[in-house]
Amino acid sequence: MKRKLFGDEGLLTPYLYLLPHAIFFSIFAFYPVFKGIWISLHKWDVLSGERTFVGFKNYLDLFFVRNVPAQYYWQALWNTLQFVFYSVPFLVGIALILALLVSSAKKGKGLFRTTFFLPTAMTVSVVAVIWRWIFNYESGLLNYILYSLFKIKNIPWLTQQPGAWISIVIATVWWTVGWNMVYFIIGLQNIPEELYESAKIDGAGWWQAFRYITLPSLKPIALFIFVTTIIASFNLFGQPQLMTEGGPGRSTVTVMLHIYNEGFGTNLRMGSASAMAYLTALIMIIITFLQVRFFTHSE
Amino acid sequence: MFKKISLILVSFLVLSLLIGPGLAQRKVEITFWNGFTGPDGRYMQNLVDEFNKTYAGRIEVKMSIMPWGDYYTKVVAAVAAGKPPDVGIMHLDQISAYVPRGVIIPLDDLAAELRLSEKDFVAAVWRAGVYEGKRYAIPLDVHPLVFYWNKKLFREAGLDPEKPPKNRAEFIEFAKKLTKDKDGDGKIDQWGTMIPVGWPNFMIWYSIFFGNGGTLFTPDNKKALFNSPEGVDALQFLVDLVKVHKVSPENVAVDADVDAFKRGTCAMEFNGIWMLTAYQEQPGLEFGAGRVPQLGTKTLANWAGSHNFVVFRQRTPDPAKLSAAKTFIGWVSRKSLEWAKAGQLPARLSVLRSSDFKKIPYIGKLGQEIPPYIVFPPLFPKYGEATGPIWDALNFALTFKKDPKKAMDDAVELANKILASE
Questions:
Q1: Most C-beta atoms within 10 A of its C-beta, which of A184, A276, B36, B77?
Q2: Would an 8 Å CB–CB cutoff place B93 in contact with chain A?
Q3: Distance from CA of B224 to the nearest CA of A (A)
């Protein structure tokens, strides 16, 4: 029997459905990824267009030549890892708590969901300005409240550690936790009601139902949330740029800030900036791989 | 019937589309990019509109305004894509990065054509646009660091509101008088000054450093010199204002000084001339603005930046566009009195000294006081990267992580490494 090329059963039909995405994917993702690797093998001046092939020099420089951009890179990577470590538990944990609260609300589900999700619609500059005033040392809202209620002396939130990280984590959680909450709500909706009903009949309490039904059922969505949240935290950029200017003493300069500066900012060295970006991507891939392993193994 | 009518209509449409561009062929369109996102953008738009009206049918300038941060990123991307704008505005300290890369073209002929001469310009600005014997930039304005003081608070402290401090000793004395615990709760609620841990503390340090007679780099730009006694002293002075004299709070974050000055809880503040409009619009704020007092030990010195016109090199040069670009730059350059109203100092002396300019509130006065003391940095491609460590050093010292000497030594070590790398 001869199959048609087009139509419902056509041989080409599934590929035609994929085509639009494939075109955009190749132009905006596939091609840039390989072009980027190509750039990272050059000494590439983006302004003059001058480029010399240098092989793996940009990568080797990062490891073996302690030049200033390399020094800054490792420090920035360490700073970023710290932020990932501080922020991800809250971004996931608080999202789960909010999702549970919103889902169990008897009334106004939509209102709460919208309220918690609303900050994600703001741009980072607005978020940064809001929190900069709240965390201001001398006249900030938070220090004012702390002093008038508890007589706590002014805390230098933005200009000393650990205050700077605490401020950035709080601002980030407030800004982006809505996404993870929505994912968890979807996850919760997908858990069949019968499971809870039969658990109730068996005499399970709230905690047991949560521990043995809710948590295991959320595992697939939790993996997705952890992976995307860690990647998002790795990409931290606007908050430190606008809230702390990378301070105190470069401690909140993140990898993305440094790469941006190396490629587009004062330095204009596209090749070495690309090398840094690919090294960072490799680290992120390894971390993602470990997470998937961890989640599937502990089954 | 309906079909016929629509057919006729469509053919008219197509025909007019074909003929339209043909008729307007002689009009030259040029693109003009800048970062005037503040109130200054309105003034530039007015100038562009007026120009387009004057040259209607011959030249049309299309202006795009974007934040300065994005502007440079977009210029880099546009240049890399081979589609730069025709005309752009560039800060003085950026030009040295663009010239050696062949991105902008020399404008000596335009300067000659416009009869621009050194005599008509603030000397430092004029010289700064020249790179290896050729002029690449036509100065539009100068934007210096300005010393702002709150006149009402001066009166309350028994100081003459018309007499800002002149030197370091006076500055400290005034600042002490202006630092007060007004409600007696043991917490200071009015500060003499505020020294931020970040922006724009570099400009303050820079003014004191040059006031001390310091030099940033060796003449060949191979070695950094800012850990000299002049550099350390300038930083020590800023730290002492916070630590020893206690006339500035600790931990002043970005823009906290601006906010405090507006509310009247900071009596003396250093910021760019670009804050002027915001302070003028602040209800109830009675303030003075002047040059930076002589906080250095040797001379008056004042940090300043400058906006300049540049023309980008196109892959396929179009003589008509180039000449239109030059016409536009020349036209705006002659209108610098209009531009001064946007809140910057014009770069032309003839305008600075004109009686019309002197009449503009604040700016008229600043235009007389500041220009003789402006110090522009030496310009070379690595200037931006090699001064980066100074920003870090100021932050380390003002957050008490390092003492000033150590902070400056570390900064010089980094800068020397940067200067030595290829």
A1: A276
A2: no
A3: 15
CA distances from B320 to B19, B27, B164 (A): 22, 10, 52
Q: What are phi and psi of B405, to 5 degrees?
A: -65, -50
By the 8 A CB rule, do B183 and B189 touch? yes
A213 touches chain B (CB under 8 A): no
Chain A and chain B share a number of CB contacts under 8 A equal to 98
- Please provide the DSSP assignment of B376-412 as one string: PPP--TTHHHHHHHHHHHHHHHHTTSS-HHHHHHHHH
CB distance A266–B263 less than 8 Å? no
- Token pair 């539009």 is found at B140
pTM of the model: 0.87
Give CA–CA dist B148/B279, Å, rounded: 9
| Bond prior to B144 in cis (omega within 30° of 0) | no
Task: Output DSSP code: residue B422.
Answer: -
* Cβ-based contacts of A248 with chain B (< 8 Å): 197, 395-396, 399, 401
Q: Which residue has the tokens 């500059």?
A: A125
Q: What is the 3-state secondary structure (H, E, C) of A60-116?
A: HHHHHCCCHHHHHHHHHHHHHHHHHHHHHHHHHHHHHHHHHHHHHCCCCHHHHHHHH
Q: A46 to chain B: nearest residue by CA?
A: B80
Task: Cite the beta strand spans of B57-124 per DSSP E.
Answer: 59-65, 87-91
Q: Which domains does chain A have, with CATH numbers?
A: 40-297 (1.10.3720.10)
Record: contact B395-A158, CB cut-off 8 A: no
- Contact flag B251-A268 (C-beta cutoff 8 Å): no
A 10 A CB-CB count for B80 gives 16
Q: C-alpha angle with apex A244: A240 to A246, nearest 5 degrees?
A: 65
From first to last of the 422 residues of chain B, give the pLDDT tens digit.
556 666 666 665 555 555 544 444 578 999 999 999 877 888 899 999 999 999 998 999 999 999 888 898 899 889 888 899 999 999 988 888 888 888 999 999 888 887 778 888 888 888 888 888 899 999 899 999 999 999 999 999 999 999 999 999 999 999 999 999 988 888 898 999 999 999 899 999 999 999 999 999 999 999 999 999 999 999 999 999 999 999 999 999 888 899 999 999 999 999 999 899 889 999 999 999 999 999 999 999 999 999 999 999 998 889 999 999 999 998 998 888 888 888 889 888 888 889 999 999 999 999 999 988 999 888 888 888 999 999 999 999 999 999 999 999 999 999 999 999 87
* Chain A CB contacts of B418 below 8 Å: 68
Rounded-to-integer distance, Cα A103 and Cα A6, Å: 45
Q: Under an 8 A CB cutoff, do A49 and B80 touch?
A: yes
Strands B28-34 and B59-65: parallel
Residue window 244-283, chain A: list those with CB within 8 Å of chain B.
244-245, 247-250, 264, 266-268
Q: Which residue has 């989640």 as its token pair?
A: A295
CA distance B173 to B133: 47
From the number of C-beta atoms within 10 Å of its C-beta (0-12, 13-18, 19+), residue B292 rates as buried
Question: How is A232-264 classified by DSSP, letter by letter?
Answer: HHHT--HHHHHHTTT-STTTT--HHHHHHHHHT
What is the distance between the alpha carbons of residues A185 and A188, in angstroms, rounded to a whole number?
A: 5
Work out whether strand B130-131 and strand B59-65 pair parallel, antiparallel, or are unpaired. unpaired
Domains of chain B: 28-144+305-375 (3.40.190.10), 145-303+381-420 (3.40.190.10)
SS3 helix, strand, coil % of chain B, rounded to 5? 50, 20, 35
B198 touches chain A (CB under 8 A): yes
* A48 and chain B in contact, CB less than 8 A: yes
